[in-house]
Structure formats: structure tokens, C-alpha cells
Amino acid sequence: MKIFHDFDNVGEIRNAVVTTGSFDGVHVGHKVILQRLKNIASEIGGETVLITFHPHPRKILYPETAGKGLFLISSQREKIHLLRKAGLDNLIIVNFTLEFSRISSMEFVRDILLSKLHARKIVIGFNHHFGHNREGDYEALKILGTTNGFEVEEIAEQDIQNESVSSTKIRKAIHDGNIQKANAYLDHQYIIMGQMSKSSPILEEIGFPCYSVKIEEECKLVPPNGVFAVTVVGDDCFSRAMCFIRKNEESPIDTLVEVHLLENYGNIDGQMVTLLFHKRIREERSLATTEDLKKQLTIDRNQVDELIF
């Protein structure tokens, strides 16, 4: 996958099949759009293109209201990882500013989709809007397409067990600790990517050595406090693990995320890893003594051992 941070350096894209959007979480609805892009590109000998935005538009447009408390399912690194796995050819990450937000839908189509990318076909999700004040939509694109020589297709709203999927619903499921529901919406496991570092000497003393995983972005959505069953994947490890989360509400980036590996891989301090979340085992619990803590962690470890084969 090729990654660009502006339109001037994109170069020649063969028969571009384009979509736009934040694609936070790269959930099942996003994957349907990406698969349709791939199918069309295969039919016309083209390449798939996603235009996405960073920071999230709400953070810039509504910094004191809708954007203030917005936490995202995926960090930038995680979204790139998921889009690469989905088989996207070209990713254009637009630096979203107030100036960019003032571009009209007509200007966006004319000056970017046509002049810069020479789009052959544009695919959008259900109820998608774009351009200044969200004035552009599917009907507007269809009209522009007839006069400018490109085709437009709208993908229907996706659902899981008759319930519509959205990034908002996934964020709520993660916030509530309902990892299994979030994973069903995502069509993959919720992930946290970060660098490992040695942690918790107290836990190591009672037989549960841990690594902490650094949260990379302030607006990364992290599940609530508690113990989770996860798989840790890195260049030199693939291990079942218990994950302990203790959130720092004043400074989310300092939230404590620790993992105790069930398999022994030696010292993997400093490695970049991906945590794949399976299930919340329990909420955070106050324990009176070190012996009580050891007994509880033994129970937790046995649960993870039984849950993840």
C-alpha cells in the first residue's frame, strides 16, 4: 500500500477507484466498501484509493463540543495497519484544517477527485456527505458524474444480526467493555498497537511479570479498567496474555496498559506489538493483601488459558 500526505505527490494512479471518509476502526461497513473498490478496480484494471483525514474532522470543526470528548477506535498507526491488511492500494491522509473544510463539494470533485486523481469511479457509503457544510452527497455526485465522465456507486448500510453498524456504536461497546460486541461490528478484533517496556516489579515478585504498552495518541479509545484476555503479536512473539487496564482520566495517553504473557519469549522489551482483544474477564477489583492479589491473578490466568486456545 502506498501512503501519501498530500495530493501533489500522488503521481499517476491507474483508473482510480476512489472513496473518502474517516474509516475509524475499519469496521465491517468500511470493509464492504473496500471490497467493492477492489472488485471494480479488478474489472477495469485500476487501483483503489482512500482519501482519509487526520486529525478527525470533528476535532477541528467542533473542538469544544462534538470533537472535545471524541475518542477514536484506531490510532493513525492502527488504521494504516488495518487498511493494509484489507488490501488497499493507495492511502491519502489529508491534514484536515479549517481551510480544507471550506472547500465546496464541487471544488473537491473538480480540483481533487478529477484534476489530481483522474477518478474513474467513486464509491461512497450509506448517507455519506462531503465538502463545506456537508453539502455534497450521493445525488450531487451522480449529477456531477454525468457531466464530468465518472461513475458513482453508493453502498447500502451494513448490519450485524439486524443491527446497523457504525463507528459510534463500536466506540460505545468498547467504552462499556463489551469487547465481543465491538469485535462483531468490526469484523476483526479490537487492537492496541504500542511499544513494550518492562513494568510492575510488584507483580513480577509474585510470579506475574508484565510489560507495559504505551498508548501513542491522546484520543485513542481504551476499554474501561479491568482485566482482559488478549493475544500479543510482535516480530518475536505470539502469546496469549492477560491485559490489565487502569485509565488516567486527566491524561488518557498515560493510561496504564500492562500485559502478562502466558508463553515465555524471553526479553522482548522495546518491541512494537499488537494487542488483539478477545474479552473482558472482570472489572478492576480492590484486594486487601498480596496473597489475595496472587490468588485472583491465578484465577484470571486460568480463565485466559481456557478462553484462548
What does this 3D model show about the protein?
By secondary structure, the protein is of the alpha/beta class. The chain has 2 domains: 2-164, HUPs (Rossmann fold); 189-307, Beta Barrel (Elongation Factor Tu (Ef-tu), domain 3), CATH 2.40.30.30. It has helices spanning 28-44, 57-61, 76-85, 98-101, 105-114, 138-148, 167-175, 179-186, 201-205, 290-307; strands spanning 2-4, 16-20, 47-54, 90-95, 121-124, 151-154, 159-160, 163-164, 191-199, 210-213, 226-234, 237-246, 256-261, 272-283. A hairpin with a 2-residue loop joins β11 (226-234) and β12 (237-246). α7 packs antiparallel against α8. It is elongated, with a radius of gyration of 22 Å.
Walk me through the topology:
Blueprint: E1 2-4, E2 16-20, H1 28-44, E3 47-54, H2 57-61, H3 76-85, E4 90-95, H4 98-101, H5 105-114, E5 121-124, H6 138-148, E6 151-154, E7 159-160, E8 163-164, H7 167-175, H8 179-186, E9 191-199, H9 201-205, E10 210-213, E11 226-234, E12 237-246, E13 256-261, E14 272-283, H10 290-307
Q: Which CATH top level class of the largest domain fits?
A: Alpha Beta
Overall number of strands: 14
Biggest β-sheet description:
6 strands, parallel
What is the number of helical segments per DSSP (H or I, 4+ residues)? 10
Q: What spatial order of strands do you see in the largest sheet? A: 1-4-3-2-5-6
Q: Determine the fraction of residues in helical runs and give it as a percent range.
A: 25-40%
Number of domains: 2
Structural class: alpha/beta
Named at the architecture level, the CATH assignment of the largest domain is 3-Layer(aba) Sandwich
Give the end-to-end Cα distance, rounded to a whole number of Å. 32 Å
CATH superfamily of the largest domain: HUPs
Integer-rounded radius of gyration: 22 Å
CATH topology of the largest domain: Rossmann fold
Mean pLDDT: 92
Which percent band covers the strand fraction?
A: 25-35%
Helix and strand pattern: EEHEHHEHHEHEEEHHEHEEEEEH
- The rough form would be described as elongated
Residue stretches low in confidence (pLDDT < 50, at least 5 long) are none
